[in-house]
Amino acid sequence: MTTAKTSNEHFDMDDFDSLLDGLTAEELDKINDFVDPENSYLPAGDRCKPQTNKAATGPYNRNQLLEFLTEQGKNEKDWDEQKPYVAGEKRGKVWEPAAVVTPTTEEDDFLAPTEWDDVLTNASETEIVELAAILGFTGLINQVQYHAAVMDKASSVNSGGWNAAAKAEPLRIVPPEPDNTTNVEDCIKKASANDKELIRININNIRDVKVDVLKDLLNALKENTYVEVLEMVNVGMTDSVGRSLVELIEANTTLKTVNAESNRLTGPVITEIVRSTLKNQTIIELRLSNQRSQILGNRVEMEVADAIAQNNTLLRLNLQFDTLGPRIRVTEKLKQNLDALRKKRLSTKQETKN
Fold first, then answer.
1. Could you tell me which of 203, 296, 222, 220 has the C-alpha nearest to residue 274?
2. 20 to 30 Å CA-CA from 14: which of 26, 60, 251, 261?
3. Residue 274 and residue 313 in contact, taking contact as beta carbons nearer than 8 Å
4. Cβ distance 226 to 211 under 8 Å?
5. What share of the chain in percent tops pLDDT 90?
6. Could you give the dihedral angle defined by the CA atoms of residues 257, 263, 265 and 270, in that order, rounded to the nearest 10 degrees?
7. How far apart are CA 275 and CA 259, in angstroms?
8. What are phi and psi of 266, to 5 degrees?
9. pTM, two decimal places
């Protein structure tokens, strides 16, 4: 048996057209049966062949069609029911709720009696509420009863029993903190005179302090050798006063703590203040958070992190970082400084023992 190979290399569309012309209508219908109706490459109108050869009875009239369907539905006979409908009669199985089995005491006879049975039976509602609070059954009691039992306040536990409603505790009136009565002019005079008793200057929350007065205070501390703590929180410090603070930190070798939170410093000035600690490296604690610019920016944070990386004495820095990289670098450097201080302290103890 021999087989002949056919090739489409020399196929001509004219031959295909002549082949189709030679087919009858029945043969063309059979060929159309092989067309895939889900072929997306064919137009939607060519995927399915016509299913009827009837001629159209007339133009499409929607109202006439609806009237015809309505009349046909009225004239047709309904299906015969196996059981005729009777008004008020329930068909099928009627639903009944399941019977609730109530446990009896006879079923619990196998439980061994304990010494707690009589105690719980004779306990009052207040004692049960207190016991529930101690065991942590917060869903059975309110918050006031729970905290009263935990804090051992038996007098307030009995506040309505199981159906008690939580009531607000009376407002505790706390007196406001007294105003800062520090005399800034007096501090300037003592700082200029290098007074031995002046170790800490606290002018926090003093409003309406002039810029010149703040600058005079910072300039007076440049040559002071006794002041170790300087607190200037919420005094309206601007960038000009911040640059005077930079000069103070670079000139003074006695300051240990500088607190300038809640002021009006900008990012570049904050960077200068942090860099000023590198000259003498005597500052141990520096607080500069909550300034005018809440977000310092990536550039300022990177510059602050670079300055902190060169500081070997700073132990605490209060400054908010929004970028993860600078925050991690600063945290790791402060940990290293604390670890170095701990090692130095241990070495001095061993030397004193020897």
1. 296
2. 26
3. no
4. no
5. 47
6. 20
7. 16
8. -100, 175
9. 0.55
Q: What are the pLDDT digits (tens) for 238-260?
A: 999 999 999 999 999 999 999 99
The beta-strand segments (E) located in 248-301 are: 257-259, 285-287
* 118 vs 295, residue with greater confidence: 295
Q: Which helix (H) or strand (E) holds 132?
A: helix 125-135
| Average pLDDT in the chain | 83
DSSP labels, 147-189: HHHHTT-GGGT-SSGGG----PPPPP-PPPPPPP---HHHHHH
Evaluate if residue 203 carries a pLDDT over 80: yes
The neighbouring-strand residues paired with 257 are 229, 285
User: Residue for token digits 């189709």?
Assistant: 20
Residues 6+ apart with CB under 8 A from 289: 261, 262, 318, 319, 320
For tokens 């009376």, what's the residue? 170
* CB distance 315 to 297 below 8 Å: no
**Residue 188 to residue 343: CA distance in whole angstroms:** 39
CA distance 168 to 103: 41
Residue 121: its H or E element? helix 116-122
Q: What number of CA atoms fall less than 13 Å from residue 271's CA on the CB side?
A: 15
The residues pairing with 231 across neighbouring beta strands, listed in sequence order, are 202, 259
17-21: average pLDDT: 80
Structure tokens at 122: 């004779």
Q: What is the pLDDT of residue 108?
A: 56
SS3 (DSSP) at 229: strand
Q: Are strands 316-318 and 285-287 parallel, antiparallel or unpaired?
A: parallel
Structure-token pair, residue 231: 């607190």
List the end-to-end C-alpha distance of the chain, in Å, as a whole number. Answer: 112
Q: Which amino acid is at 19?
A: L
Residue 265, pLDDT score: 94
Q: At 13, is the pLDDT very low, low, confident or very high (cuts 50, 70, 90)? A: low
The pLDDT, as a whole number, for residue 207 is 84
Two structure tokens written together for 209? 């302090």
pLDDT tens for 211-242 read 999 999 999 999 999 999 999 999 999 999 99
Question: What single letter denotes the amino acid at residue 43?
Answer: P
Please tell me whether residue 25 adopts helix, strand or coil conformation. helix
SS3 call for 67: helix
- In whole angstroms, give the CA distance from residue 237 to residue 306: 25
